[in-house]
Each structure stands twice: as structure tokens, then as C-alpha cells.
Amino acid sequence: MLKTAIIAARAAGEILRRHFGSSLEVDETTRFDVKLRVDKLCEEAIVSILRQAFPAHAVLAEERGSEGDSSHTWIVDPLDGTVNFFYGIPHFSTSIALSLEGRMEIGVVYDPLRDELFACERGRGATLNGRPLRVSAVREPEDAVVAVGFMKDDRTVSRGLRALSSTIHRVRKVRCMGSAALDLAYVAAGRFTAYYEAGIRTWDIAAGEALLLEAGGRFSSVETGPHTHNVFASNGLVHEALAPGFPLNP
Ligand code: LIP
Fold it and tell me: Residue 36's pLDDT band (boundaries 50, 70, 90)?
């Protein structure tokens, strides 16, 4: 199953590399978001690979929503960081997770421009391009680099801003990179110390959650709506000290 997820993520990555920097077909724009035709192309490629290998499994994907009913659900974000992609900012990813009765079994996050493949299987550790991954050893908030994401509505943006302004003076740096899947993969890889986002969708974080847990991190979340969560994730060591600045209550 991990091999199939990797094949699917690389197939989407190939499509993304081909389209990046060219004129793009926009399906829809909203105040804080764009929807691109390439999102759908990638999703179709991923889902057809997964379905061919596992026809009985269910799928939850950003563009199509929920399909099928099974204990096994593939959770897919074909292009995480769509706005970055649209503006030519080279930081986006494909995210594929497998949940078994609600628990993440497999996580793959692929950054096609850097050719970085983060992958894990529950209980077997996480890897980056085949090499084992571990969260950072940072213990003190003042040494931490924290990623904060801003979702697509005023409420969650205001919430992110409040968290940011209360924390930015306590940590070394805050980063807003625009791809939750990569933010979590970077915490897993020890690049970031922690990550916070309010109102983030299940497909943006499922694979990242799996990676982070396998790399020794800690993941706290509260479901605030259908497929929607407030998330604070960290290397574990700074969790208690920083969590109060990143409230999860709805
Ligand atoms: C993106 C997230 C990002 C968030 C954006 C957006 P998408 O996902 O990963 O962290 O701040 O608003 O939701 O929509 O590009 O898959």
C-alpha cells in the first residue's frame, strides 16, 4: 500500500512539475483561495492509481469529497499549497494518507520541485528519500521555529493572527509557508519545531500527522466541523510550553 501511495504521489508530482510556471486554468476564485484545473488533473491521476490497486477502499479527496464506504480510506490532497503554485512560489506538495478505521497507517508527502519524498508506515518510522527522519531536539521555546498557516476565512485568519502575535516574541522565528502538509513534514524532519493552523482540512494534514507521529512528534487537534480541525503539532519537547499560545477550542 505504501508503494502504491508513493507511485500515486510521484505521478501527481510529474503533472505539477509540468504545469508549474505555465498559464493555468482557474476553475474558481474566492477571497483567500483559488481552485485550479491542475488540482483536478492530479486528483484524477492519484485516485485512478489507488482505485486500480484497491478497488474496495474508500476515498476522501479535496476535489471530490467522500466516495465509497470501507474501513480503509485514502485521504488525498492532490495539490497542497494551491495559492503558492498559482503565484509561481515554488513551495507546494501532494499529500496521500491511508486511514484504517480513523487511524493513520500510511503517510506520503511529496515536494515535486525539490524531489523530496516524506513517507511512513505506522510502527516503521518515517523517512525522507529513504533516510530515517526524526523531530528536532529543540527544548526551549526561544530556540523554536514555528510554522503558522492561514486558512480561507476571516474567522480562522483572525485566530491565526492572535496566536501569531502572542507567540512571535517567544520563539526564534515564525514562518508562513502555505502548505500544511509540508509544514507537518518539516516538523517531522526537524526543520520546524512546531506548526499551528485553525480551520485546516483533513486532506491537508492527514499524511503530515502520520509522518509526525512516526518521527517522534506530538499532534494535538480538535475537530471544529466536517473534515475541519484546529491543529497544534510539535517535536513534543516544546509542546507544553507553546500549546497555550495556540488554542484548539472551536
Ligand atoms: C492550503 C493549506 C495551507 C492553508 C491554505 C490552504 P490547499 O491547502 O495547506 O496551510 O493555509 O489556506 O488551505 O487548499 O492548497 O490544498
Answer: confident
| 80 C-beta closer than 6 A to ligand 1 | yes
* Nearest in space to 128 (alpha carbons), one of 158, 102, 108, 103: 108
68 vs 114: CA distance, rounded Å = 34
Cβ 179 under 6 angstroms from ligand 1 = yes
Per-residue pLDDT reduced to its tens digit, 129-147: 999 999 999 999 999 999 9
CB of 81 sitting under 6 A from ligand 1: yes
Q: Is the CB of 204 under 6 A from ligand 1?
A: yes
**Atom number, ligand 1, closest to the C-alpha of residue 200:** 13
